[in-house]
Amino acid sequence: MKPESLKKYQPIQVISNPNRQWCKNTITQAPIWCSVDLRDGNQALAIPMNLEQKLELFKLLVSLGFKQIEVGFPSASDTEFAFLRQLIEEDLVPDDVTLQVLVQAREHLIDKTCQSLKGAKKAIIHLYNSTSPLQRKVTFRGATKQSILDIAVSGVKLIKERLNQLEGTQVTLQYSPESFSDTETDYALEVCEAVMQAWGATEENPVILNLPATVEWTTPNQHADQIEWFIHHLSNRKAAIISLHTHNDRGTGVAATELGLLAGADRVEGTLFGNGERTGNLDLVIVALNMNMLGIETGLDFSDMKHVKDTYTKTTAMTIHERHPYAGELVFTAFSGSHQDAIKKGFDLRNKAVEEQGVDLQEIPWEVPYLTIDPQDIGSNYEAIVRINSQSGKGGVAFILEKDYGYELPKAMQAQIGTYIYQAADEQGSELDNDKIKELFEENFVNINTPLSFESTVQLTSTSDNVTQGSFTIGYNGKTQEITGSGNGPISALVAAVRSSGLIELDFQVTDYRSHALSGGSEADSIAYVQLKDNSTHQCIWAAGVDSSIEKAGLKALISALNLLLIK
């Protein structure tokens, strides 16, 4: 903002809580979850959901494990009334799921709400009215604290009088002092105490006191102070379930909720991916998976995140940002070379631990740098973890070639390949997909057959003193000739044959050799990696050979490396 604009804004008055305890606490168990996607989330959509979309989203919420679902504002919308009736009359609500409905403290709205709930097994009637000084001043044109309190108590009594219309329905009252976040906390407490008394709240029949940060005015620690102060001063704590309902105006809705739980709250309301008015509601996916990340069971199942995202976007027409925690397309992706290298090393150590300990991979503690959770635990694959652009490096390229194509590059070879690949990405000016990376690797480092080409092995024999004698057909500049040599193995024999043939003038030596099968089975290809050193320049270079014969793969790798030295 421009400095002159700041004159309009004043610090928010915060509550005094010098003996705060929440900062010493730790979250060890999940709260009661309540999804408000079908009400709070729906009202924030440019085009609200129709009945078919609502039903599809409701079924998703049930499958995810939500036991309390706010399905609408049936007294304010014919569509929401019809949807609630459909759920009840078609018996679409599991016995362990409670339907929640929102209503203002007005008699005709309460009457219609009770009509909408007839036949429901379990219901939460969510009563609310605004309590903050700003709402009292602006919305209610100077209403007094007492008049606002009277509205709340009157609404409670109206609901209580109509419970005889809901025989067979287990009804719980929920009350929200709307705009709790900027209401005087002692006054919000006074209103909630009056509501509990009017309802006759007991430990066996508690009231849900929902304390909404309808607008996020303060920092998360101040929100926690409000919640803790309220709970500490509540006279009949055991007769109340303290519920949180944060919004995200300051971008800290998740933090405010987590600190509110540390302050003693029992329950959380929110939506999938934070859909809601303005900057949105609390994101339940983030809070739940944050707990899973710490090994806490939540009762919610996000193991198939793609299905959750697909259903959400289909029913709401909303999009999910690429960087959205846990759910975004890029949230597990590393482009940075140093990050990619650390991730690869983390996976390598896990696999090594499995081999050494003989245990299932799921039993190995998750310790992979830059990844807070295993992407596979929410249905993501490893293909998206490492993606290559000009910022990438050796570790990322090696990770992709191994995970997707089975090439286990020797550590010393990774720098050479990585440098080549990310330079290609820099020249192209864009990201390289995995198939392009494989293509560049194979075209430039595997079975390189110019100017030299390996045509065939004519003969290989071993003497009694373990010396290998070999005859090979080699092509050079379009002509073939047979060359011979001997050494302590086929590769040594070919090296000796090339040196003695006079085909090329190059002083070189083999400094490293590795090989492995590319896939299982007797018909599988094998790959060999050879490092050569040019003794005159001291340059080292790697190349590879692939063949169904591990022996020929090694010979092809040697010729490939010679060609790269000759080209350079």
Please provide a written account of the structure.
Strand 9 and strand 10 form a beta hairpin. The protein folds into 3 domains: 284 residues, Alpha-Beta Barrel (TIM Barrel), CATH 3.20.20.70; 109 residues, Helix Hairpins (Orthogonal Bundle); 116 residues, Double Stranded RNA Binding Domain. It has an 8-stranded parallel beta barrel, surrounded by 8 helices. The protein has a 3-stranded antiparallel sheet with strand order 9-10-11. A 3-stranded antiparallel sheet has the order 12-13-14. It has 568 residues and is α/β, with parallel strands linked by helices. Helix 6 packs parallel to helix 7, helix 7 packs across helix 8 and helix 13 packs across helix 14. It is 39% helix and 19% strand. The chain contains 17 helices and 14 strands.
